[in-house]
Amino acid sequence: MMTKLLLVEASPRGEHSISRNLAKAFVAQWRAAHPDAEVIERDLAKMNLPYMNLPWMGASLTPAEKHTPEMKDVLRVSNELVAELLAAGHIAISTPVYN
């Protein structure tokens, strides 16, 4: 099984972000220590994440075998993100700090 690192970044400041630059340095060192590993990068600042709403709640509380096509669509992004999280052997979260 291949080692996976999930990097979650949240700063909207791009290349001017201290947290993003620290994450880049960390990932470079991590890759050097794990040359055959996979890095999955999720940039929350660039994603249009849907909010949890009533349809999402209803779908998430319904057993999977009873999901309608609409419920599956509502849960698609959430399921994708959860699968990435569960598949990762290592997780790094880069988040801004505002004073």
Please tell me about this protein's structure.
This protein is an alpha/beta fold and 99 residues long. The chain has one domain: Rossmann fold (3-Layer(aba) Sandwich). It contains three helices and three strands, in the order E-H-E-H-H-E. It has helices spanning 18-33, 54-60, 69-87, and strands at residues 4-9, 38-43, 90-94. A three-stranded parallel β-sheet has the order 2-1-3, with helices on both faces. The termini are far apart. The model has no long low-confidence stretch (mean pLDDT 93).
Compact overview of the structure:
The protein has 99 residues and is an alpha/beta fold. It has helices at residues 18-33, 54-60, 69-87; strands spanning 4-9, 38-43, 90-94. The protein starts with a strand and ends in a 5-residue tail after the last strand.
Main attributes of the structure:
3 helices; alpha/beta; Rossmann fold; 99 residues
How do the strands and helices of this protein lay out in sequence?
Elements: E1 4-9, H1 18-33, E2 38-43, H2 54-60, H3 69-87, E3 90-94
Parallel strand pairs: 1-2, 1-3
Helix pairs in contact: 2-3
Strand content: 15-25%
Structural class: alpha/beta
User: How many domains make up the coordinates?
Assistant: 1
- For the termini, the CA-CA separation is 41 Å
Please name the fourth-level CATH homologous superfamily.
Flavodoxin domain
Uncertain stretches of 5 or more adjacent residues: none
Helix fraction by DSSP (H/I, runs of at least 4): 40-55%
Q: How many helical stretches? A: 3
